[in-house]
C-alpha cells in the first residue's frame, strides 16, 4: 500500500506542477511564485490551501516579508543561501518544519501549513499557518452545569489540547499523537499524566488505537466502537465529555483521555459504571447536596429502566401489593381500556420515543413547541379516548423525565434499551421475570471490563476507600486516595491526610472584643 | 473472557459460602426444625452452628494443604489419577444433583407462590439460562455478583426485622429447653446438613487471591449462614408460634406478609421473594460452576462451553423429570438427601484428609529410612 | 460465542412472548372482594362475596368519582360441598375471577362457627392469594346480610367493617381485632381456645341501596356485638363487654379504653376514666395440693375524663379514693371474665400457656385433662390504677354549682 517516498525534485516548476496534479484544480489552492526582477526565473514558490490557513498569518508573516525582500537578496544568494535566509530571517512563524518528500508536502498542505519551495533545493519549508473559520470556545450544549467553568471543547484539536494544558500545568502531562484514517488522516491524541495513569492501560490503549485500520474517523464515536472491550453490550465502556474540567478531573484520577480532531467530544477510559453518574458539578457544589443528587441519579436510572416493567408486573401479576384504594382507582381506569397493560405500555413508550426523536430532529424554532403539543395532545387525548389509562401516562412520563436525569447520554440510552426487554419479561413472568432479567444484567455487568478494569469496580470487587465517591460524594479532604487499579499503584495518594478545616482556637472576633 | 487465572477476594468467598447455604435453608428450615424441636428449634439450630463451625475449621485446614492448584489436579498430584477420577466424577455428580435439587425447590416455590399457571418447564429454563450465563463468565463474575446480592440481602433483612418488630411475641419461645437433649440434637441434623455445603470451599478455595484468609473465610461463611439460620428460625417462632410454623409451607415469607404499615405498605413478601430469587441464582450458579469445573479439570477440556451447556441441560432435565410431585420430592430429600450430602461434604473431605496424612507419614518414614 | 448465546436467547424470548402470559390477570378481569361470608347449610358451604365495582367508586378519569346512584359493591353467594368448590361455582355466574388478596374481613355465621372453622383456615393457609391478615368476625344471622348492608361513611362496607374493628381494638379494647393467623395460632395453642368478635345489623329494614345511604340517618347499621368463645375450633358461648374487657386485662391486650365507674363507695354518681397504658403480669403458682393459682397484677395509667361527683381534685386523698374505686371496677370485670370462662369450660384467658411456660414438666402431666382442671384454677388479682392527669379543669363542675362552693 505504502509506496516509497519520493523526494522533492530540484526544480520548483516540477514540484509546483506535481502539487497541482495531486490536488486537482481546486480554486482554493494558492501558488505564488517570486522571481528576481527581470531575471524571470522563479526562485521561490509559496503553496497553501486558502480554506485551511489563517489568511492574516500568511499575508503578514510570510507573504509580506518575502515581497519586501530586496532585489539584491534574490541575486546575491544562491539556493542554499536563499533557503537559509527564508528559514532564519524572513518567515515570521514560530513552527517551521523541513520536509523533503512529496507525501509530507501534501499532508502538510492539507493540515493547513504553508509550503515554501526554493528553486534548486530539495528540501521545502512548512510554516504552520493552520487556521480558517472555526467555532470559538463556547459553553457546552450537553452536560450543562450551574456552577463551574462554562468552557467547552471545540472541533479544533489544538484548542482542545490547550484547554487541558491550561488546567493541568504539570510537566508530566503527556500528549501522544497518532494519525488514524487512511483518507481522513485524523489526528488522535492520547492524554495522560505520566506517573499517575496506569502504564499498562496507556500501552493497551495505544495498542488498540494503532490496530485501527479504516479509511475515515469523523468523530470519537468511531474510535469508541473500534477500541471498546465488548460490542454486544448496552453499557458504554468509554466515557465522553465536552467539558474540559471533567476530562481534566479524569486525567488527574489516572484516566486516559483520547482527543479526536474534528469533534468536541473527548473520550475517557477506562471507566467504571459509577462514573456515568458523576457530573463535574458534584465536585463544585457542597458535598451534601452533591451526594443527595447522586442518589437521586441512581434512583432515576433504576426508575427509567424499571418503572414501566414494574408497573406492568404489579398490576397484572401482583395486585396484592397495591393498596386497596389505589387498586380500585387503577381498576376503574382500566375498565374502559381495550389493550392488556403490556400492549398499552408499549404503545405509550414507542409514542414517547417517537416524540423524543422528533424533538431532536425538528428545527429548533418549532421543535419544543411541537413536542409539548404532541405530548399534551397525545397524552390527554389518548386517556380521554380510552386508549390508555391515565396511570400509564403518568408512569411513562415519569420514566421519560427520569431518563434525562442521568448525566451521561450513553448510559441513559442503555437504560432506554434495557427498559423494553424488562417490560416483556415483566409482562410475561411478573416480578420473577424482572428479577431474572436484572440478574442477567448484573452478571453481564460483573463480567464486563473497560480496558481490564472491572466495570463495577468500587462496589464489586469491593474497595472501601473508593466508595467515598460512588453513591455519595465525600468532602474533598476525605477523598485522599485515587481509584485503585485505574491509577498507578504508587500514585494512589491524592492529597495529604487530616485536612479537615477547623476554626482557630482563638476566635478573632472575641479577641477584638477583649482588645 | 475465559481467563486462565481467575481470582476472588476473601470477602467474596465468604459471601459465596453464605449464599451457598442460605437460600434453600430459608425455604424449609423453620418448618423442618420446629416440627422436631418446637419452640426449642432455635437451640437445635444453634447446636448445628457449633457443629458446622467444627466442619468449617476442618475444611479450611484441608484447603490450606492445597498449594494453589485446582482441586482435582491437586488430588491427582497427591493421590493419583484413579483417585482423582473417582472423586472428580462423584463430585460432578454431586454438584449436578445439588443444583437440580435447588432448581426444583426454586421452581416449585415460584410455581407455588407467584406463577401458579406458568409451566414449570419455562420457569426452569429461564433460571437455567441465567445460571449458565453466569457459569460461562466464570467464578470471578459469579463472586462479584454474589457480593452485590449479599449486601442487598443484608440491608433488606434489617429492614424486614425493623418492620416486624411489633409482631414479635417473645413468650412463644418459652419454656426454654423443654425438649430433651436427644430431640434437640435430632433437630440439629438437618440445619447441620445444610451447613456442610461449606465443603464447596475445597473447589473455590484455590481461587482465593490471598491464601492466608482461607481459614477465616471458611469460618465466617459458616458463622454467617448459621447465625442467619438461627435468626430465621427464631423469627418464625416469635411470630407464628411453634405450632403454626409447621402449617405454613414457607414461613419465612409468610412472616413478611404480615407486615402492615399504615394502609399502604402491605404484602411485602413479594419484595423479599424478589431479592431471595437473586440469592437462589447465585447458589445454583455456584454449584453448576463447581460441577463444570470438576469435569473440565478432570478431563483437561479447553473449550468449556459445550460441557457447561451439556451439564446445564442435564441438570434441567433432572430437575424437571426426577420427581412426580412435591411429596415425592420431600420423600427423596428425607431419605436420599442427608446421606448424599454427608458423603460428599463430610466423608470425602475426611477420607481425603486421612489419605493425605497417611501419604505424608509414609513419605516421612521413607525419608527417615533413606536417611538411615 | 456471544453471538450464539444471543441467538439462543432471542429464540427463547420469542417463544416466551408468543406463547406467554399464563398468570397474567388484567385489573379489569378481577372481581376484587372486600369481604367474604361463610355459612353452612345442609352440609354445604354457602360462601358470600362482597365484590367491589371499581367504576362506581372512582371514575375512569380519576376525577370527582363517586357517581352516586350506583351501588359501590355487589354481593352474591355460591354453594358447594367444599369452600373452593363453592368459589369455583362463582364462575358460573360471574364474568370475572374472584380475587381475594384485598379481602379485609371474613364474616362467619354462628352455624358455621359451631361446626368448626378449620376448613376455612386450611383454605387460607393453602391459597397464596388470600392474606393471613384478614379479620375474622362472627354473626348470629346470615353473613350475606352483613355484607349487603351499606355504610354511608365508608363506601366499601367491607373496608368499613375492618376500620370499625381495628379502631375499636386500638382505642376501645372491648373487642379484639382477630386476624386469621392469630386465630389459628391461639386455636392450636395450649389452651386450644380463641375469641372472635361479633358483628350484627341493628335495626331494620336493612340499608342495601345507595338511595338509603343518601339520607342523614339510616334505619339500620352495622355494629359490633359480643365476643364469641371458640373452644377447639367450635363456638361454645358468648362474652359480654364487661367480661371481654376482663379477658383483655388478663391477656394484657388492653390498649386504651374508657371505663365508667362510680366515684363513691355507694351511690349512682359516675365518672369516666380514660385508660392510656396498662400492663398485666401473669404469674402462675402451684399450691401444695397440685392445684394452680394464677396471680394477676394489673398496672394501669390514665386520665380522668369526666366526673359527676363534687370533688376537689387538688387533694391527693380524693384521687387515691377514685383510684381505689377504679381498681374495684377493673377487678370486677376480671372476676367476671374468670367466671364466664369457667362457665364455658374454655380457657380463653390463656392460663394453659402461662402454666406451660412456667412449669413445663407439670404441664406434661395435666395437659390431657386440662379442660376439667381449668375451672378449678384459682385466681388472685391485684389492680393498681394511677390517675396521672385530671384534664384541664381541676374541680368538678358539680362542686362549683353547689351553694357552699367557692
TrEMBL record, chain A:
GO BP annotation list: spore germination
Transmembrane stretches, start-end: 295-317, 387-406, 418-443
UniProt cross-references to Pfam families, sorted A to Z: GerA
Chain intervals for the UniProt region annotation (Disordered): 484-515
Keyword annotations from UniProtKB, A to Z: Membrane, Transmembrane, Transmembrane helix
Iron-sulfur as UniProt keyword: no
Entry superkingdom: Bacteria
Gene Ontology cellular-component terms listed: membrane
Family: Belongs to the GerABKA family.
PANTHER family per the UniProt record, alphabetical: LEUCINE ZIPPER PROTEIN 4, SPORE GERMINATION PROTEIN
Name of this protein: Spore germination protein
From TrEMBL, chain B:
Any Pfam family the entry gives: Spore_permease
Subcellular localization: Membrane
InterPro entries documented for this protein: Spore_GerAB (IPR004761)
Domain of life: Bacteria
GO biological process, one term: spore germination
Membrane topology of this protein: Multi-pass membrane protein
Segments forming a coiled coil: none
Listed transmembrane segments: 9-29, 41-61, 82-102, 114-135, 142-164, 184-208, 220-241, 270-291, 303-321, 341-359
GO cellular component, one term: membrane
The keyword Lyase is assigned to this record: no
Keyword line: Germination, Membrane, Transmembrane, Transmembrane helix, Transport
NCBIfam families: 2A0309
Family per similarity comment: Belongs to the amino acid-polyamine-organocation (APC) superfamily. Spore germination protein (SGP) (TC 2.A.3.9) family.
Protein name: Spore germination protein
Organism name: Paenibacillus soyae
TrEMBL record, chain C:
Alphabetical list of PROSITE patterns matching this protein: PROKAR_LIPOPROTEIN (PS51257)
Subcellular location: Membrane
Entries under InterPro entries matching the protein: GerAC_N (IPR057336), Spore_GerAC-like (IPR008844), Spore_GerAC-like_C (IPR046953), Spore_GerAC_C_sf (IPR038501)
Alphabetical keyword list: Germination, Lipoprotein, Membrane, Palmitate, Signal
Major place of residence: membrane
Any Gene Ontology biological process: spore germination
Cited Pfam families: Spore_GerAC, Spore_GerAC_N
Residues covered by the Spore germination GerAC-like C-terminal domain: 227-391
Domain Spore germination protein N-terminal: 23-199
Membrane topology note: Lipid-anchor
GO CC terms of this entry: membrane
Family to which this protein belongs: Belongs to the GerABKC lipoprotein family.
Protein name: Ger(X)C family spore germination protein
Species: Paenibacillus soyae
Taxon lineage: Bacteria, Bacillati, Bacillota, Bacilli, Bacillales
Amino acid at each position: 500500500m505504502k509506496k516509497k517516498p519520493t523526494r522533492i525534485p530540484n526544480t520548483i516548476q516540477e514540484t509546483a506542477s506535481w502539487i497541482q496534479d495531486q490536488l486537482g484544480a481546486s480554486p482554493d489552492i494558492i501558488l505564488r511564485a517570486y522571481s528576481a526582477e527581470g531575471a524571470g526565473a522563479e526562485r521561490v514558490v509559496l503553496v497553501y490551501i486558502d480554506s485551511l490557513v489563517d489568511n492574516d498569518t500568511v499575508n503578514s508573516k510570510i507573504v509580506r516579508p518575502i515581497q519586501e525582500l530586496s532585489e539584491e537578496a534574490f541575486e546575491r544568494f544562491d539556493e542554499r543561501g536563499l533557503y537559509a535566509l527564508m528559514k532564519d530571517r524572513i518567515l515570521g512563524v514560530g513552527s517551521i518544519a523541513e520536509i523533503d518528500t512529496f507525501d509530507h508536502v501534501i499532508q502538510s498542505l492539507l493540515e493547513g501549513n504553508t509550503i515554501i519551495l526554493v528553486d534548486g533545493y530539495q528540501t521545502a519549508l512548512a510554516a504552520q499557518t493552520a487556521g480558517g473559520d472555526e467555532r470559538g470556545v463556547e459553553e457546552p450544549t450537553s452536560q450543562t452545569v450551574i456552577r463551574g467553568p462554562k468552557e467547552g471543547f471545540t472541533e479544533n484539536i489544538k484548542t482542545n489540547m490547550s484547554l487541558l494544558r491550561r488546567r493541568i500545568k504539570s510537566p508530566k502531562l503527556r500528549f501522544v499523537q497518532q494519525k488514524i484514517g487512511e483518507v481522513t488522516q485524523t489526528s488522535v491524541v492520547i492524554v495522560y499524566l505520566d506517573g499517575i495513569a496506569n502504564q499498562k492501560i496507556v500501552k493497551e490503549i495505544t495498542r488498540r488505537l494503532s490496530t485501527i485500520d479504516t479509511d475515515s474517523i469523523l468523530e470519537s464515536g468511531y474510535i469508541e466502537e473500534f477500541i471498546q472491550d465488548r460490542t454486544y453490550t448496552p453499557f458504554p465502556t468509554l466515557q465522553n465529555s465536552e467539558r474540559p474540567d471533567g476530562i481534566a478531573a479524569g486525567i488527574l484520577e489516572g484516566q486516559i483521555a483520547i482527543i479526536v480532531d474534528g469533534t468536541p467530544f473527548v473520550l475517557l477510559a477506562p471507566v467504571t459504571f459509577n462514573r456515568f453518574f458523576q457530573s463535574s458539578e458534584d465536585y463544585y457544589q457542597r458535598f451534601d447536596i452533591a451526594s443527595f443528587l447522586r442518589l437521586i441519579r441512581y434512583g432515576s436510572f433504576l426508575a427509567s429502566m424499571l418503572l414501566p416493567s414494574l408497573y406492568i408486573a404489579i398490576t397484572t401479576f401482583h395486585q396484592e401489593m397495591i393498596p386497596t384504594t389505589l387498586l380500585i382507582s387503577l381498576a376503574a381506569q382500566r375498565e374502559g381500556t381495550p389493550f392488556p397493560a403490556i400492549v398499552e405500555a408499549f404503545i405509550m413508550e414507542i409514542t414517547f420515543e417517537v416524540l423524543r426523536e422528533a424533538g431532536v430532529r425538528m428545527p429548533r424554532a418549532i421543535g419544543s413547541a411541537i413536542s409539548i403539543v404532541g405530548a399534551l395532545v397525545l397524552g390527554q387525548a389518548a386517556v380521554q379516548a380510552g386508549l390508555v389509562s391515565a396511570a400509564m401516562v403518568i408512569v411513562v412520563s415519569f420514566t421519560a423525565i427520569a431518563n434525562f436525569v442521568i448525566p451521561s447520554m450513553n448510559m441513559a440510552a442503555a437504560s432506554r434499551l434495557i427498559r423494553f426487554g424488562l417490560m416483556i419479561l415483566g409482562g410475561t413472568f411478573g416480578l420473577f421475570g424482572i428479577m431474572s432479567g436484572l440478574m442477567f444484567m448484573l452478571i453481564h455487568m460483573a463480567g464486563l471490563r473497560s480496558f481490564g478494569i472491572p466495570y463495577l469496580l468500587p462496589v464489586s470487587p469491593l474497595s472501601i476507600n473508593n466508595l467515598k465517591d460512588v453513591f455519595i460524594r465525600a468532602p474533598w479532604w476525605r477523598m485522599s486516595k485515587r481509584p485503585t487499579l485505574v491509577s498507578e499503584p504508587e500514585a494512589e495518594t491524592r492529597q495529604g491526610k487530616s485536612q479537615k478545616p477547623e476554626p482557630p482556637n482563638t476566635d478573632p472576633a472575641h479577641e477584638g472584643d477583649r482588645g | 473472557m475465559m481467563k486462565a487465572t481467575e481470582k476472588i477476594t476473601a470477602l467474596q468467598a465468604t459471601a459465596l459460602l453464605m449464599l451457598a447455604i442460605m437460600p434453600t435453608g430459608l425455604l424449609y428450615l423453620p418448618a423442618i426444625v420446629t416440627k422436631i424441636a418446637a419452640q426449642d428449634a432455635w437451640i437445635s439450630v444453634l447446636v448445628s452452628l457449633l457443629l458446622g463451625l467444627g466442619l468449617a475449621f476442618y475444611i479450611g485446614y484441608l484447603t490450606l494443604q492445597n498449594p494453589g492448584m485446582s482441586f482435582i489436579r491437586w488430588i491427582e498430584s497427591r493421590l493419583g489419577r484413579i483417585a482423582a477420577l473417582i472423586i472428580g466424577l462423584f463430585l460432578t455428580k454431586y454438584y449436578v444433583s445439588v443444583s437440580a435439587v435447588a432448581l426444583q425447590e426454586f421452581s416449585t416455590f415460584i410455581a407455588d407462590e407467584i406463577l401458579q399457571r406458568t409451566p414449570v418447564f419455562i420457569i426452569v429454563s429461564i433460571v437455567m439460562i441465567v445460571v449458565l450465563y453466569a457459569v460461562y463468565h466464570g467464578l470471578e463474575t459469579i463472586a462479584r455478583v454474589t457480593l452485590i446480592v449479599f449486601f442487598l440481602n443484608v440491608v433488606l433483612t434489617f429492614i424486614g426485622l425493623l418492620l416486624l418488630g411489633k409482631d414479635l411475641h417473645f413468650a412463644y419461645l418459652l419454656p426454654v429447653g423443654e425438649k430433651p437433649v436427644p430431640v434437640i440434637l435430632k433437630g440439629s441434623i438437618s440445619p447441620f446438613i445444610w451447613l456442610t455445603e461449606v465443603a464447596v470451599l475445597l473447589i473455590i478455595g484455590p481461587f482465593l487471591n490471598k491464601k492466608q484468609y482461607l481459614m477465616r473465610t471458611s469460618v465466617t461463611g459458616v458463622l454467617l449462614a448459621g447465625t442467619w439460620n438461627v435468626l430465621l428460625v427464631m423469627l418464625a417462632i416469635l411470630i407464628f408460634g411453634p405450632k403454626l410454623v409447621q402449617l405454613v409451607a414457607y414461613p419465612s415469607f409468610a412472616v413478611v406478609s404480615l407486615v402492615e404499615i399504615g394502609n399502604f405498605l402491605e404484602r411485602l413478601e413479594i419484595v423479599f421473594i424478589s431479592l431471595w430469587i437473586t440469592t437462589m441464582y447465585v447458589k445454583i450458579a455456584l454449584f453448576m460452576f463447581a460441577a463444570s469445573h470438576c469435569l473440565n479439570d478432570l478431563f483437561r477440556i479447553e473449550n468449556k462451553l459445550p460441557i457447561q451447556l451439556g451439564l446445564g441441560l442435564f441438570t434441567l432435565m433432572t430437575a424437571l423429570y426426577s420427581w412426580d410431585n412435591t411429596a415425592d420430592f420431600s420423600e427423596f430429600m428425607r431419605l436420599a438427601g442427608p446421606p448424599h450430602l454427608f458423603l460428599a461434604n463430610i466423608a470425602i473431605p475426611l477420607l481425603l484428609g486421612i489419605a493425605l496424612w497417611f501419604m505424608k507419614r509414609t513419605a516421612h518414614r521413607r525419608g527417615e529410612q533413606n536417611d538411615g | 460465542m456471544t453471538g450464539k448465546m444471543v441467538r439462543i436467547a432471542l429464540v427463547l424470548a420469542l417463544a416466551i412472548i408468543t406463547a406467554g402470559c399464563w398468570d397474567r390477570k388484567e385489573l379489569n378481569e378481577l372481581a376484587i372482594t372486600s369481604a367474604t361470608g361463610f355459612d353452612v347449610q345442609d352440609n354445604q358451604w354457602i360462601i358470600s362475596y362482597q365484590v367491589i365495582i371499581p367504576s362506581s367508586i372512582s371514575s375512569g378519569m380519576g376525577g370527582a368519582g363517586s357517581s352516586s346512584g350506583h351501588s359501590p359493591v355487589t354481593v352474591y353467594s355460591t354453594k358447594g360441598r367444599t369452600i373452593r368448590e363453592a368459589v369455583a361455582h362463582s364462575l358460573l355466574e360471574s364474568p370475572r375471577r374472584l380475587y381475594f388478596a384485598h379481602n379485609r374481613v371474613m364474616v362467619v355465621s354462628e352455624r358455621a362457627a359451631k361446626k368448626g372453622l378449620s376448613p376455612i383456615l386450611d383454605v387460607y393457609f393453602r391459597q397464596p392469594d388470600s392474606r393471613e391478615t384478614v379479620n375474622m368476625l362472627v354473626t348470629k344471622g346470615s353473613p350475606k346480610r352483613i355484607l349487603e348492608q351499606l355504610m354511608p361513611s365508608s363506601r366499601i362496607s367491607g373496608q368499613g367493617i375492618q376500620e370499625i374493628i381495628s379502631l375499636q381494638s386500638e382505642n376501645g379494647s372491648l373487642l379484639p381485632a382477630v386476624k386469621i393467623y392469630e386465630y389459628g395460632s391461639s386455636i392450636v395453642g395450649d389452651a386450644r381456645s380463641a375469641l372472635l368478635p361479633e358483628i350484627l345489623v341493628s335495626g331494620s329494614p336493612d340499608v342495601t341501596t345507595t338511595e338509603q345511604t343518601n339520607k342523614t340517618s339510616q334505619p339500620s347499621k352495622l355494629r359490633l356485638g359480643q365476643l364469641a368463645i371458640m373452644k377447639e375450633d367450635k363456638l361454645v358461648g358468648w362474652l359480654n363487654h364487661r367480661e371481654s374487657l376482663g379477658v383483655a386485662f388478663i391477656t394484657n391486650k388492653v390498649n386504651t379504653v374508657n371505663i365508667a365507674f362510680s366515684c363513691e363507695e355507694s351511690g349512682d354518681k359516675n365518672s369516666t376514666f380514660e385508660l392510656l397504658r396498662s400492663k398485666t403480669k401473669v404469674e402462675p403458682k402451684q399450691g401444695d395440693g397440685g392445684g394452680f393459682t394464677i396471680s394477676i397484677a394489673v398496672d394501669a395509667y390514665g386520665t380522668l375524663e369526666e366526673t359527676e361527683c363534687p370533688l376537689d381534685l387538688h387533694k391527693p386523698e380524693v384521687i387515691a379514693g377514685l383510684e381505689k374505686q377504679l381498681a374495684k371496677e377493673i377487678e370486677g370485670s376480671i372476676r367476671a371474665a374468670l367466671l364466664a370462662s369457667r362457665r364455658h369450660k374454655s380457657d380463653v384467658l390463656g392460663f394453659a400457656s402461662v402454666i406451660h411456660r412456667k412449669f413445663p414438666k407439670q404441664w406434661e402431666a395435666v395437659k390431657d385433662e386440662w379442660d376439667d382442671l381449668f375451672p378449678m384454677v384459682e385466681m388472685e388479682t391485684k389492680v393498681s390504677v394511677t390517675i396521672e392527669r385530671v384534664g384541664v379543669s381541676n374541680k368538678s363542675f358539680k362542686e362549683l354549682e353547689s351553694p357552699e362552693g367557692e
